[in-house]
Amino acid sequence: MAKTAEKLGLTQPSVTRSLKKLEDELGVQLFHREPNKITLTETGKYAVRQAKKLLDSNLDFSKDVK
């Protein structure tokens, strides 16, 4: 989390809260949390794949419109 936070220019607690909020909003667990370790659940892996498709589609849309 610390590396992710640093890369995004955020604090680690901010990233952690944002991920928990996303899980709460979706009503699903996206991560397995263990001391000093976090991994994606199968649902989390699915969410990542779908988010990538959505972002790629948005980029394609922007390019096509321009």
Automatic annotation (TrEMBL):
Keywords, sorted A to Z: DNA-binding, Transcription, Transcription regulation
A Pfam family hit: HTH_1
Coiled-coil zones: none
InterPro entries: LysR_HTH_N (IPR000847), WH-like_DNA-bd_sf (IPR036388), WH_DNA-bd_sf (IPR036390)
HTH lysR-type domain location: 1-41
GO molecular function, one term: DNA-binding transcription factor activity
Family: Belongs to the LysR transcriptional regulatory family.
PANTHER family: HTH-TYPE TRANSCRIPTIONAL REGULATOR (PTHR30126), HTH-TYPE TRANSCRIPTIONAL REGULATOR GLTR (PTHR30126:SF40)
UniProt-recorded name of the protein: HTH lysR-type domain-containing protein
Organism: Lactobacillus kalixensis DSM 16043
